[in-house]
Amino acid sequence: MSLLVFIDLVQIDREFVNNKNFKTKQESKVPFPLTTADKEILEDTDPNYRVLNIAVNTFNESGTSYYHKSIGGYHAAKLRRYQDLIDAHIQTNIQNIMTTLRANPTDSLLRVTFSKQGVLNMLNTRYIIFNKDASPLRNRYALGNAWFVKDVKTVRNADEEIKAVGEINPGYTAVIDERFKNQLEGFTLNSDASGTIKLIDYKPNHLKYESNSTAEQVAVFSEIYYSKGWNAYIDGELKPYFCTNYVLRGMRVPEGKHLIEFKFEPSVYFTGEKISLLSSILLFIAVGIAIFMAFKKKEL
To answer: Measured at the alpha carbon of residue 40, what is the angle toward residues 38 and 42, in degrees to the nearest 5?
Structure first.
């Protein structure tokens, strides 16, 4: 039997999996060598921005995500809403940029083009890679990690919401579905030009922001809305938040200086942890009883 297994592994399996299918340890350590564009982007001291790579098939590659927070990338399981946004607006925004680049544009023309790509701007797209061996383009209209808006537009359903996202200036207006309008009851929007909100700490499951304003504001956070586990806190107190601009998070922020946190705390995970712990305890008890009974029988 051992001989047959050996023959199978060596002679037959190597026809399908051989040395060509493996890389050396050194090659595996750096699967995506740094490009000129990557190096320049990584010089940015603020790591909290996103990168759009149009030098490749934007939504069918993974190399960009190795070094950066990418607008694109590929995964077989996607959030449906983000895919909707890609189909409805992001692809169009990308095409607009590529059309401008083909015309050998001046810096001022590039700026005009970037200013009009509202969806990419609300996704905090600070850099665009158009040639891996060239310097990336800097988009100075990226809206950052969070911002206060001056107007809120309510729509009746998701179809109206995704359409409106392509028509607004997201730096000034937020769009929300009417199913969240109860969170804005009694709220009067008072614009505060001196108001600030900024990301002060980032972990994939815990984000911290600091806000300061002289009046209550509506803040938009450039993070995907996902209510199945993400909780929001203001100064440690659990607060509601809503979906805005079809995919992002929005929240009422009181006047004054506050610490805002988003924590990923899925109840299913913690329930599963408790069940797992209880199961382990019961298993150890059962094993202990079995050992005790075995010794007891020996004594008899």
So the answer is: 70
The answer to whether residues 129 and 43 belong to one domain is: yes
d(CA 297, CA 299): 5
Tell which of 122, 138, 154 closes a domain.
138
More confident residue, 272 or 37: 37
- Cα distance between residue 94 and residue 139, in whole Å: 13
3-state secondary structure of 218: strand
Tens digit of each residue's pLDDT (9 = 90 or more) over 202-244: 999 999 999 999 999 999 999 999 999 999 999 999 999 999 9
Assign 3-class secondary structure to 13-78. Answer: HHHCCCHHHCCCHHHHHCCCCCCHHHHHHHCCCCCCCEEEECCCCCCCCCHHHHHCCECCCCCCCC
**Given the structure tokens 């050996």, which residue do they identify?**
6
Q: Are residues 185 and 119 in the same domain?
A: no
Q: Which two tokens stand for residue 300?
A: 């008899």
The tokens describing 130, both together, are: 């158009």
Place 91 in a pLDDT band, splitting at 50, 70 and 90.
Answer: very high
Range of the domain at 204: 146-264
Instruction: Quote the Cα angle for 243-83-100, to 5°.
Output: 105
List C-alpha distances in Å: 237 to 38, 254, 258. 40, 13, 11
Label residue 250 by pLDDT band (50, 70, 90). very high
CATH number at residue 242: 2.60.40
